[in-house]
Design a protein that fits this description.
Elements (H helix, E strand, L loop, with lengths): L1 E8 L6 H9 L17 E6 L3 E7 L9 H15 L3 E7 L6 H11 L5 E6 L8 H11 L5 E4 L8 H11 L17 H16 L3 H4 L2 E9 L5 E9 L2 H8 L4 H18 L3 E9 L7 H6 L5
Parallel strand pairs: 1-3, 1-4, 4-5, 5-6, 8-9
Antiparallel strand pairs: 2-3, 7-8
Bound molecules: guanosine-5'-triphosphate and magnesium ion (MG).
Guanosine-5'-triphosphate (GTP) binds next to helix 1.
Length: about 290
């Protein structure tokens, strides 16, 4: 038996969470085309008879703009320090910049062994893959590079077998029926945030927090969920609500469907939009919304 923790790190929007979801075979982490989707370390566990791989999803590496992103960057750093292996996810279709090379080298020189998952190969010319890998080696990035596509499942089984061979010998540390360390309540708040990230433009979603006030299964088997959607500015509140409540109704309906899938029962969802100016820089509010180091 082999078992170990694999820190999944890389730039924001590289495809880390998508790759973990595909490896684990369940959606443990939300995904969106916007950078900074993942805000804290989230465990995704893959248990097979011969091995257990505990993936630690992390917030993408990104320029810090406020106290929330400071906390996020710290959480990514901590995850990279406390693991048996680092899987650095790189968005292959975005090319390779000097910045990318510098960031990769920062981790390859550490004491934790690392490999690069060179992802999104489904949307790039195949002939560029060997050229890019050569470029990495020529520039001193000293580790294995595994081209994959999470969207098309290309080389996912190969990556799994590769990682199973890299984690140390030892018994599993997480019960085998557990796929994540996060509660259903947390997952519900993340589902709501994901639908908002997918629906609204650049500025609004990044200033969103979700506070779940009621999370209770009724005697009739229906889950009663009541949550606040916190935004930063009054004009964001108007955008979120939309004309005669159309926007919030639409996102809530998408969110409810996913919550029902997660919980396996009907959900009665009530949502309120509230404004908390500049909450991403206010330590007490950050803590209230579950973000603290
Ligand atoms: N074409 C293609 N798109 C992908 C692939 N993997 C991820 N994506 C897309 O890339 C975007 C970012 O994916 P995420 O998994 O949220 O990326 P992340 O690295 O977790 O991002 P942060 O949490 O913001 O750091 C989403 O729109 C995904 O659908 C892939 O293999 N192929
Ligand atoms: Mg993510």
């Amino acid at each position: 038996m082999r078992s170990g923790f694999i820190g999944v790190i890389g730039k924001a929007n590289a495809g880390k969470s998508t790759l973990i979801n595909v490896l684990v075979g369940e959606k443990v982490s939300i995904v969106s085309p916007k950078p900074q989707t993942t805000r804290e370390a989230i465990m995704g566990v893959l248990t097979k008879p011969e091995y257990q791989l505990v993936f630690v999803d992390t917030p993408g590496i990104y320029k810090s703009q406020n106290k929330l992103s400071d906390i996020m960057q710290k959480s990514a750093q901590t995850a990279a320090n406390d693991v048996d292996f680092i899987l650095f996810v790189h968005d292959g279709h975005g090319g390779i910049s000097d910045d990318d090379i510098a960031l990769m080298k920062k981790y390859t020189v550490g004491k934790t062994p690392m490999a690069i998952a060179y992802t999104k190969i489904d949307i790039m010319p195949k002939e560029r893959i060997p050229e890019d890998v050569k470029k990495l080696y020529e520039n001193g990035v000293d580790c294995d590079v595994l081209p994959v596509s999470a969207r098309k499942f290309t080389n996912i089984a190969k990556l799994e077998a590769y990682l199973a061979d890299k984690v140390p010998k030892g018994e599993k540390v997480i019960p085998e029926d557990m796929v994540t360390d996060k509660s259903e309540r947390f997952m519900v708040s993340e589902i709501m945030r994901e639908k908002i990230l997918l629906k609204f433009g650049q500025e609004v979603p990044h200033g969103i927090a979700i506070a779940v006030n009621v999370f209770e299964k009724q005697e009739n088997g229906v889950y009663d969920i009541n949550l606040d959607i916190i935004c930063e500015k009054p004009n964001h509140k108007s955008i979120l609500i939309g004309k005669q409540g159309a926007a919030i109704k639409e996102v809530s309906s998408f969110a409810r469907k996913d919550m029902e899938k997660l919980l396996g029962c009907k959900v009665f969802l009530t949502t309120y939009v509230k404004v908390k100016e500049d909450w991403r820089n206010r330590p007490n509010l950050l803590k209230d919304f579950g973000y603290s180091d």
